[in-house]
Amino acid sequence: MLRTRFPGLLIIAFLLAPISLWAQSTIIDCTFPTSWEGRQVLLVARPLGQPNLIDTTSIYNQRARFVHNIAEPCPAYIWVEGHKNDLTFFIDSTHIQLSVDSGAVVSYQVRGSTTNYLWKQFDDVLDSVRASYKREIVFREDTIPSSPSQQQIDSLDNAYATQVDRLIQSNPFTRASWYLFASNYTMLPHPTAVKLLDKLSTFAAYPSYARITEHLLRQRLGIKAPDFTLPMVSGNRLTLSKVKSKYVLLEFHVSYLVPFQQQEPALRRLYATYHPSGLEIIRVLARDDTNAAGLQTVPWLRVIDTTEPTSTVWSKFGVDLPPYYVLLNARKEVIGRAKSVENIEALLSSLLRMK
Questions:
Q1: Locate the Thioredoxin domain: which residues (predicted)?
Q2: DSSP labels for 64-100?
Q3: What is the topology classification, in CATH, of domain 25-114?
């Protein structure tokens, strides 16, 4: 794995002048057919890093209005009582107008959003990848749930990441691209995420930009791993810096998630193969993982992350969606990150061949 440089992340103040966040409030005006008078209307917006914003009103004089503070651009949809399809749009200005025509086929127009059309293109492309995921991994033969191989999962994850990268690269200055990146960057390879963040520096004024920058900085290779002391499942306490091994693999684990159960046999083989060569594994369990203590015994170390929710060991290591593995050398420097045991095995094999 390559060290990742951050040419633009450490000098954000000198980046291109950031775009305006527009006014504090966004007005969404909706116009509906006369026959829809009195129906309930529901607005659902999906702001970054926050719960969905939900509001409701009724159609009066063919109109419905929503006014909300939305700090950053985000997708949204309108649900109307009695209408089966949601009316999707993208909020990227202070005033969005949505008008519905109830002809033989209900259609609608969105005005005031400069990137609404682009967001729909993004969603259509990614929907095709999601459909493949469901078809290949979730169900086979229409009704029978399958147990996908790690190779299948990696292949489809890579396809999704490739499409996200391509869409952003082709439209780096649109607000829809920023939302696409900020809501999907954890699925991207780290070098790709860093490259795209630099490319999207136009949006450095957004609060999410600083948060994502900090998160990606924590994921660099070659940095000293943050030390920790945590209680072990056995009752003792473990300090990372006191573990004397040639390599230490931190496995950030949630016992009740199926992917971990599927990767357990591969992790056992990895330990059996590389422990004699100096590998130690530390399983870092989430503090709310109440099933952990009662699980089958494993030959490696197990600790429970009991630190405060705002500064967990998971967050200090920049852990994204689990499964997640961080490989350290004897000096406790981060030399590898992966989401599968197979990728860690490939890295260890390469490192030991170089010795």
A1: 219-353
A2: EEEEEE-SS-EEEEEEETT--S-EEEEE-SSEEEEEE
A3: Immunoglobulin-like (2.60.40)
